Amino acid sequence: EAGVAQSPRYKIIEKRQSVAFWCNPISGHATLYWYQQILGQGPKLLIQFQNNGVVDDSQLPKDRFSAERLKGVDSTLKIQPAKLEDSAVYLCASSPKTGGETQYFGPGTRLLVL
Amino acid sequence: DQQVKQNSPSLSVQEGRISILNCDYTNSMFDYFLWYKKYPAEGPTFLISISSIKDKNEDGRFTVFLNKSAKHLSLHIVPSQPGDSAVYFCAASVTGNMLTFGGGTRLMVKP
After folding, report:
1. How many whole angstroms separate alpha carbon A69 and alpha carbon B108?
2. Distance CA A49, CA B86 (A)
3. Contact criterion met (CB < 8 Å) for B101 and A44
4. What is the CB neighbour count within 10 angstroms for residue A4?
């Protein structure tokens, strides 16, 4: 069974530029999560989708971050415009149902904002 | 407000000995707890979990203990192997809701 796929693996941009990350969850997993992991910290949830609907986006900085999960499968996370403090690893995870059961993570996208 | 804390940023143990990683939480509503392992340049990998109705769960060399009154959980690895060297995250949730992660503990197992 294929795991969670993410691309790109690395991205370097200048502040005020835009960037987008892509995630393909494990086949059949209804729930998809985007996390931000700043160096030295644990992952912090940005947004949770159940199929193509948003379950929780309370920690998403909506003035610059947006995410969508069209058709309830793949998802994209966008930052526009990027700030220096957005430098982090962006992790995508999926789980079969919803809530706090075991989540399966992708390898992450490491973003550096200069 | 850090609801899940891992107070030891790093831990070094000798191969074959026991590794004990600790995690404290503040939210008494948490009822499901997990441990994840993370290697460099990879995403976290699920290791073991425990529900609040239990106080111990074992899977091979890995055992998780939950002390609800102290709001404390620990992960025991016996015996420790060099391949166990990684960053370990504990996470907690109220069932049906999001996971809250601790800051991680870097475990180094020396041959």
Report:
1. 38
2. 29
3. yes
4. 22
Tokens at residue A30, please? 């209804």
* Distance (Å, whole) CA B31 – CA B68: 9
Determine the residue type at A70: L
Catalogue the E-assigned strands of chain B: 4-5, 10-14, 19-25, 32-38, 45-51, 56-59, 62-67, 72-77, 86-93, 100-101, 105-110
Q: How far B88 CA lies from chain A's nearest CA (Å)? A: 10
Q: Are residues A100 and B104, on separate chains, in Cβ contact within 8 Å? A: no
What is the pLDDT tens value at each position of chain A, 114 positions in all?
A: 689 999 999 999 999 999 999 999 999 898 999 999 999 899 999 999 988 899 889 999 999 999 999 888 999 999 999 999 999 999 999 988 765 568 899 999 999 999
Q: State whether residue A103 sits within 8 Å of chain B by CB.
A: yes
Contact B77, B84 (CB under 8 A): yes
Give the C-alpha separation, A55 to B81, whole Å: 40
